[in-house]
Amino acid sequence: MKPAPFTYEAPTTLGEAVDVLGRYGDEAKVLAGGQSLVPVLALRLARFEALVDLNRVDELAYVREDDGAVVVGAMTRQATVEADPLVRRAVPVLAEATRLIGHFQIRNRGTLGGSIAHGDPAAEYPAVVTALDATVTVAGPSGTRQLAAADLYDGPMTTTLADDEILAAVSFPVWGPRSGFAVREMARREGDFATAGTVVGVTVADGRITRAAISLFGMGPVPLRARDAESHLVGAATAGLDLTAVGAAAVAGVDPPSDVHASGRYRTRVASRLVARALESALQEATA
Amino acid sequence: MSDPHPITITVNGQARSAIVEPRKTLADVLREDLRLTGTHLACEHGVCGACTVLLDGSAVRSCLVFGVQADGAEVTTVEGLAPAPGELSDVQAAFRDCHGLQCGFCTPGFVVSIHAFLDANPAPTDEEIRSGLSGNLCRCTGYAGIVNAVRQVVRERAGGPPTEGVPTVAGHAVTTLPSAP
Amino acid sequence: MTATQAAPGSGVGRFLGQSVKRREDARLVTGHGRYLEDVLWPDAWHVAFLRSPVARGRISTLDVKAARALPGVRAVLTGADLDPLVKSWWQTAMGKDSPQPPRRLLAADDVRYAGEPIAMVLAESRYLAEDALELIDLDIETQPAIVSDHRGRWGAAKDGELVHPEYGSNVASTLPYPGMPDSNPALEEVLASAPHVVEETFHQHRYICVPMETRGIQARWDPARDLLEIVSSTQNVHEVRSTVSRLLGLSDVQVHARAEDVGGAFGLKCFVDSEELAVAAAAYSQQCAVAWIEDRNENLVAGGHSRTEDLTVSLATDADGKILGIKGHHVEDVGAFPTYGVGGNAGLAMMMLPGPYDVGQYFYSAEAVFSNTCGMTPYRGPFLMETVAREQLIDITAARLGIDPVEFRRRNMIRPDQLPFTTPTGLVLETITPIETLDQATEMIGYADFRKEQAAARAEGRILGIGIASYIEGSPAFGAAGAEQVTVRMDMAGQALVFMGSGSHGQSVETTMAQVVAEELGIDIDDVRIVQGDTISSPYGTGTAGSRTATTFGGAARIAGQKLKEKILQVAAVALEASPDDLEITDGVVSVKGTPGAAIGMEQIAAMAYAGHTMLPADMEPGLEAKHRIRNPPLMFSNACHAAIVEIDRDTGAVEIKRYVVSEDCGNMINPMVVEGQITGGVVQGIGGVFYEHFVYDGDGNPLTTTFLDYLLPTAADVPDIEIGHVITPSNTPGGFKPMGEGGAICSPPALINAVRDALAPFGGLPNVQPLTPEVVLDVIDGVPAV
């Protein structure tokens, strides 16, 4: 279980990284934290002529506030995200979701951008960016562009980024006061990819829900938004809300995959209940 | 550039140089080029934790880092944790005291991980201990001795009484019967 | 510390019965262990195997030219290169004439399971060897594989095509053996007339050993020394030596096998499999050093599999729940190439199915079948199906009869006044304590109080359950395994070297056996060193397996120690001009009882025994060395009762183990800390098997759980503290020790399943399947029919 040979490139600036990547086109792969990529290489499930290592691009590791959003550089380690005071205060569900990623040794090396660009449909971060309507900054040969989270994923572990583009940063909008969030997942063991999971957010004003977001992970080829369930929630009174029904609505029409860990049928039932549990917690937080 | 690269890593306080292929993992560089074989490989895909080392102070899987990526970095392996040759770190001593190992193959990864875990969280609850250990797999012990070893270190570092005798798995009821007829 | 009392017969002494810290640990906790991969020879060529990507098919193309041409590659060997070297291939324990499937080092014409080795690359590094694999041109015409999933697999295995055409049948073996009665008419009468007969079939899924250190071997043929030198990660160096010498037509003195530290095995490293033999053959034919370290992917796919079987049990009782008879039918899937013989475990399961109960009439039949899957290998408690099935059926029967399952067991267990008890299978149980351990376990877990707690929890909508299981652990010591030798040698300086044919792979043998010898000799434990795992220096032995080490090696060490002690006293008696009967040894000094000052140290005694031999009586042999080869019964027994409390999440079906209690009787404990470590480790392997681990094939025989992302081992976060109580009833063999290394893994599955079944009782029945994934559990709660 040893990787095939590759050429190693270790740029120190984003510009240099984009240039190097451009030279190889689809023959190169960006190496971020490596926590998903290196096992794939070791198993020889994929091979690349070159790896472009971003670990020496210091300008990609930061967390800062910018115009009502929290912007996180792609090479920010997950352990940093988890502990960052700004993230915990302004985008608490991002910190909460981070704690569910692998184990602390994985989070010490794994990066926010790496996980989001890898796009595992059972991973937490893609579901967080999908739920929170985050914006992704992508750097390419012709400069940078912004991409809405909803437009990021194409299929399992596939993004709409071009071969010569690098995911540089993610901007998480900060929701207003009286908002609450939660992430809930079912995994066979602690740290495993989720069998099924959900990220939810709600804002409440005068006893009514004014904003709602529900994303599902492990439930399809890409992280899913439960738009119908969200529209049932917006405008609804928090008192007497039938969360079980909302959970059922969130998974209606979803056709989750089956694998050695669970059938799609199981995923549907569990996701519906996780949505209900997550909403209960988020509503409590919003109305506390 | 798939040709071997010269690298220098400060391992256990000592600058060590090697010339390695980029594809060679840090674990293999430590084991083969630097002859530090305490870091073990038990899955090579980042799940079991046996290869855990400290990279610039953070516990990481050395099978998921390439040796070239550690060029210029500081690495601490299980061989570098004891205060002096022939001595044991408190975590290592607790593993011995509490029967935290049987075959010992996974032990280096646990010991390194626990040093890092307790540095970050010196007073964990039992649930936090078990969660903190969940990134390392052991097939022999059933984890009881390992959990007890962490509890012992937490107690000792908090200034608790020195550990006497061998703390074993749990409370016991012992009935001694005469030999059957 | 274990509060073991030094009561008569409990075997507690200065070292014996004490939780002595392990002498293995200082090196292992500091990274200075020496496992095979840590001691690879610098001149070794590294091996990677090309393995079959499909379960069954004909090899139409195998072209290794490009791989051979890769710089850094020494050789690419195929079956055509290696298999002509094979002279004979059999396992010592099975005997030369035991039936087995056709063996080959590398598949040449056809492949019979996904993962079967086809070619081996020898290269300068494993990296390069894997590069070369990618250059091999392989085409296979796929044929329909003989496999199916664990609920319907047997029909597929019996009909149609053959896994091994040479064998003539997919049925590998059957029970009863030829010549044994093929039915028990008295039992049939009981089954026809008993007030209650309950029959269930229990499906056991495939889960596997998975030691943290995988398999591995390095071998070097040195024609100048006429020696094939081997270092292997093995439980049994003598079997490595003998299998390799037979394979290549060498003599036993032309092969030297040894082991260094071994990183776990659990049965996987008892026997020598095709990859290891291929490495030895390659070293011999290439006249060089060759090393193979199995990677985890290989280990999961091809490292020997276990526990793929069904057991149907019928239990007849009278109106009061007294068992009148038991009938079992066992079907095992032994895969394509079992590592030993035909791989079946039914022979032992047949002997053990009655367990700790007085069962009346009995009959057992079995069938082992081949399939196009990885071959069967022993795994801790290989015959555990007897306990897994029996203990579940007891709970099911008790529930149908409306009898509490603890009470049901108590009514049927072998009572102290029945000992020695001869079972229907002819086993003689002399010192077992099933009722005592049942009482202790149920008291420790608070069985009576739990029922109240459970009722209250159910009223709140929580799902709690308790499960009990009891068993007899039978340790097979057939043939040479029952006759292990220990040699104790004291050289001129007065310390003891202890030579044994054991093969510790985590069992703490360097500590426990030193405790036994130091106790007997009256010297410090630091003055004892254990030498094992080397065919040149160790007495012939069968290694460490089958829970035998304490009983066979421990018993032999005790007697060898006693013999040496007698010799020491005889020599000291000459020096002190006293009778040996008046002497005692304390802290390494021999003194005359009641005469202060009349004493002599061990070093002086040793000097006299060797250099001063002219002073010894003419009929006394000089030197200080004693050996003993023990004769143990072919089966020895311990017993235990396990109890578990679980709580189930009604939204997800996830099971939390809230408490786990073991009460066991392994006789005199050499080291209680080590005993408890073995119990706990075994229990957690059972937790893994019941809830997490499952090696899965699809319908075409493709393995689906090929990494640790899919084959799930339990972590520290998935298991509770294990609470352990001891009942101590010494055995009748030297030292009073009993076998106990496998019991934790044998009894935990039914205890856990019974707890889940109990929890789910209000929702209807739990199907007799494993693993109990969250989905299986949730389907019961939600009333959804199983897929």
From TrEMBL, chain A:
Alphabetized SUPFAM superfamilies for the sequence: CO dehydrogenase flavoprotein C-terminal domain-like, FAD-binding/transporter-associated domain-like
Coiled-coil intervals, chain numbering: none
Top-level lineage group: Bacteria
PROSITE patterns in the record: FAD_PCMH
Domain FAD-binding PCMH-type: 1-177
GO molecular function: FAD binding; oxidoreductase activity
One Pfam assignment: CO_deh_flav_C
Record keywords, A-Z: FAD, Flavoprotein, Oxidoreductase
InterPro entries, alphabetized: CO_DH_flav_C, CO_DH_flav_C_dom_sf, Diverse_Substr_Oxidored, FAD-bd_PCMH, FAD-bd_PCMH-like_sf, FAD-bd_PCMH_sub1, FAD-bd_PCMH_sub2, Mopterin_DH_FAD-bd
UniProt keyword Oxidoreductase present: yes
Record-given protein name: Carbon-monoxide dehydrogenase medium subunit
Species: Trujillonella endophytica
UniProtKB/TrEMBL annotation, chain B:
Gene3D superfamilies per the UniProt record, alphabetical: 3.10.20.30, [2Fe-2S]-binding domain
Pathway involvement of the protein, from the record: Alkaloid degradation; nicotine degradation
2Fe-2S ferredoxin-type domain sequence ranges: 5-81
Sample GO molecular function, one term: oxidoreductase activity
Region: Disordered, residue numbers: 158-181
A Pfam cross-reference name: Fer2_2
UniProt cross-references to InterPro entries, sorted A to Z: 2Fe-2S-bd, 2Fe-2S-bd_dom_sf, 2Fe-2S_ferredoxin-like_sf, 2Fe-2S_ferredoxin-type, 2Fe2S_fd_BS, Beta-grasp_dom_sf, Diverse_Oxidoreductases
Record keywords: 2Fe-2S, Iron, Iron-sulfur, Metal-binding, Oxidoreductase
Name listed for the protein in its UniProt record: Carbon-monoxide dehydrogenase small subunit
Organism: Trujillonella endophytica
From TrEMBL, chain C:
Membrane-spanning ranges: none
Domain Aldehyde oxidase/xanthine dehydrogenase a/b hammerhead as annotated: residue spans: 30-144
Residues forming coiled coils: none
Keyword list, A-Z: Molybdenum, Oxidoreductase
GO MF terms held by the record: iron ion binding; oxidoreductase activity
InterPro entries xrefs: Ald_Oxase/Xan_DH_a/b, Ald_Oxase/Xan_DH_a/b_sf, Ald_Oxase/xanthine_DH-like, AldOxase/xan_DH_MoCoBD1, AldOxase/xan_DH_MoCoBD2, AldOxase/xan_DH_Mopterin-bd_sf
Gene3D superfamilies per UniProt: Aldehyde oxidase/xanthine dehydrogenase, a/b hammerhead (3.90.1170.50), Aldehyde oxidase/xanthine dehydrogenase, molybdopterin binding domain (3.30.365.10)
Organism the protein comes from: Trujillonella endophytica
Superkingdom: Bacteria
Protein name (Swiss-Prot/TrEMBL): Carbon-monoxide dehydrogenase large subunit
Cleavable signal peptide: none
Alphabetical list of Pfam families matching this protein: Ald_Xan_dh_C (PF01315), MoCoBD_1 (PF02738), MoCoBD_2 (PF20256)
